[in-house]
Amino acid sequence: MGGSWSKWLLIVGAADTGQMVMIGVLMASSLLNVAYLLPLVGKGFFLKDPEAAPIHRMAESPTLVWLPPAITAVGCLILFFYAGDILTFLSPIVAPN
Prior knowledge:
The chain has 97 residues and is mainly α. It has 3 helices and no strands.
């Protein structure tokens, strides 16, 4: 849902400025997102026969598959809980003279 909120705000901003072409591009992008993401949801949650699944064997993912998203998640948690401390630390560097 994070992507849909930002796209919605972009559409509202484009509507405020009268940029109809940009609204069309954003709407087409949304439809394309639905077109390529919906089959994943359908196969993952609504597949009736487990034998019909294309993957029959479950295996552990390689480290380079799960490590970057895990590092990103930890970074997001750190930014969430320590945003004020990080801002205080960085404010002397970025503060205007």
